[in-house]
Design brief:
The chain is α/β, with parallel strands linked by helices. It has two domains: 269 residues, Aldehyde Dehydrogenase, Chain A, domain 1 (3-Layer(aba) Sandwich); 178 residues, Aldehyde Dehydrogenase, Chain A, domain 2, CATH 3.40.309.10. α2 runs antiparallel to α4 and α3 packs across α4. The radius of gyration is 24 Å and the shape is globular. Bound molecules: nicotinamide-adenine-dinucleotide (NAD). Nicotinamide-adenine-dinucleotide binds next to α7 and α8.
């Protein structure tokens, strides 16, 4: 079943528990050959309004369920997701252009996100506060109501489910707008799973639309007064725009954005392990992960042996269509992205960078590419590449490595390779990122950790109890029991 790319026929938008056709469709392409994967519903602003109203109508009954009932439903979602995971893997390969192994990993991870969300249903705890008036004074967590979720294409299983699972656990209803590059694996497929698992109609709605319609449909999701919070994962440019709009409408928002992540290889690192980790961190899923290793910072004393080992490994990666499972490096998600990455390589070459490995590109493919002699005047040093290209730089001192790591507007993850954990901990305190991994590469996530970045990499945290903070309000409630005195005259 996994070997034959299928053309999909979507059932429609998913609104109020029903599959509803849109007036128009848009082409959803298979990036391995730009063939048509599906004609997807291209929603209008009024489709989005209907989805928001359906979510609003369904929210009170969902919020009123016991935590146990919500948890049982989310466990059922995990069960259905696991049973159908081969379908997801197939979709994410042929709609998203991901290598088979990435699909297997992603499918497994998502089931964990739903199980963690089920556990969160039991953890919406508040606090009892001291009161000068001897009241019973409490801070309680309450759902916000309707949460709008906007998700990216690069991990359409993980990043979409991470955006909404905790919101559902907290008792909210959701309207999801997936990426126009993965409207099925990041959107309507989720609707099929949640419908089959028995999530009540209207609690989860999916509205797909084309790039041409996204500004209008997205605006409705952010501006509609019934939507109380936005959960966004995507680029910094769009995230800034969305956070600003949320600010103008005084809405909560959690935005997880881009990265320009470094891996630092110190002189006492295990070079074999570091080279293998770098090969994965730089090139897995064509470098299209927000946490991909985009800058490799190597101590000058181990630069030559490390680079030899790293390039030897990179040379074994095969690039080509994902229908051949031997290809670890598939296409970039679309022609626009492939051209953007090629332009970054050309800009670096024109400004004096050396292509130490790779450098070729064709159709939507870019082979694993290692650039050395990179300077900060090159776009590749500053811009998020989101492609299988790494910029390598050497350093002499710890302080230099920290400065090179921090020389970016982004702040998502950093990685440090050293035999000295004390030294790594000391350095971790000085790196301007939301996450630091010692003796591993940058791509790490678990459903129970506070995942998120600083600087232009985002605001807010996903995962575990931190997700509850993103998708609930704190309400202060007091019980006056006769001790309160008012000024004389009142
Ligand atoms: P993108 O910003 O182009 O799109 C993200 C989502 O925003 C899509 O659903 C898109 O349709 C929607 N969108 C675009 N314009 C909009 C508008 N005007 N109003 C409402 N919605 C709008 O990002 P992408 O290309 O899908 O994803 C890649 C980016 O996401 C990279 O920068 C990557 O680093 C980032 N990312 C971050 C994380 C993280 O956790 N920090 C994880 C994955 C990806």
């Amino acid at each position: 079943m996994l070997d034959a790319p299928l053309k999909r026929t979507p059932k429609g938008l998913f609104i109020g528990g029903k599959w509803v056709p849109a007036a128009r469709t848009f082409p959803d392409l298979n990036p391995s050959d730009n063939s048509l994967y599906a004609d997807m519903p291209d929603a209008s602003r009024s489709d989005m309004t209907r989805a928001i109203e359906a979510a609003h109508a369904a929210y009170p009954a969902w919020a009123a369920l016991t935590f146990d009932q919500r948890a049982q439903t989310l466990l059922k979602v995990a069960e259905v997701w696991e049973r159908r995971k081969e379908e997801f893997i197939h979709a994410v390969m042929h709609e998203g252009g991901g290598w088979y192994g990435k699909g297997v990993f992603e499918a497994g991870f998502v089931a964990g996100i739903f199980r963690t969300a089920a556990a969160l249903c039991y953890q919406s705890v508040g606090e009892v506060l001291p009161s000068a008036d001897h009241k019973v004074s409490m801070a309680m967590r309450v759902p916000v109501g309707v949460v709008g979720v906007i998700s990216p294409w690069n991990m359409p299983g993980i990043l979409t489910s991470r955006g909404y699972a905790a919101a559902l656990a907290a008792g909210n209803a959701v309207v999801l707008k997936p990426s126009e590059d993965t409207p099925y694996s990041g959107g309507l497929y989720h609707a099929e799973v949640l419908e089959e698992a028995g999530v009540p109609p209207g609690v989860f709605n999916v509205v797909t639309c084309s790039r041409e319609s996204v500004s209008e449909v997205g605006d409705e999701l952010i501006e509609h007064p019934l939507v109380k919070a936005i959960s966004f994962t995507g680029s910094t440019a769009v995230g800034r725009h969305i956070a600003a709009k949320c600010g103008a409408h005084l809405k909560k928002c959690c935005v997880e954005l881009g990265g320009k992540d470094s891996m630092i290889v110190l002189e006492d690192a295990d070079l074999d392990k570091a080279a293998q980790a770098a090969n994965f961190g730089c090139f897995m899923h064509q470098g299209q992960v927000c946490m991909s290793t985009e800058k490799l910072l190597v101590h000058e004393s181990v630069y030559q042996p490390f680079m030899q080992k790293f390039i030897d490994r990179a040379a074994k990666l095969r690039t080509g269509p994902v229908s051949d499972k031997g290809n670890h490096i598939g296409p970039l998600v679309n022609t626009r992205q492939a051209k953007r990455v090629a332009a970054l390589i050309e800009d670096a070459k024109a400004k004096g960078a050396t292509v130490a490995h790779g450098g070729r590109y064709w159709d939507n493919f870019v082979e694993p590419t290692v650039l050395t002699n990179v300077t900060s005047s090159m776009n590749i040093w500053n811009d998020e590449t989101f492609g299988p290209v790494v910029a390598v730089s050497s350093f002499r001192t710890e302080a230099e490595a920290i400065a090179l790591n921090n020389d970016t507007e982004y702040g998502l993850t950093a990685a440090i390779w050293t035999a000295d954990e004390q030294r790594a901990l000391r350095m971790a305190g000085l790196l301007e990122t939301g996450m630091v991994h010692v003796n591993d590469q940058n791509i790490n996530d678990e459903p129970v950790v506070p995942f998120g970045g600083v600087k232009a990499s985002g605001v807010g945290r996903y995962g575990g109890r931190w997700s509850l903070e993103a998708f609930t309000e704190l309400r202060w409630i007091t019980l006056e029991r006769g001790g309160r005195h008012y000024p004389p005259g009142f």
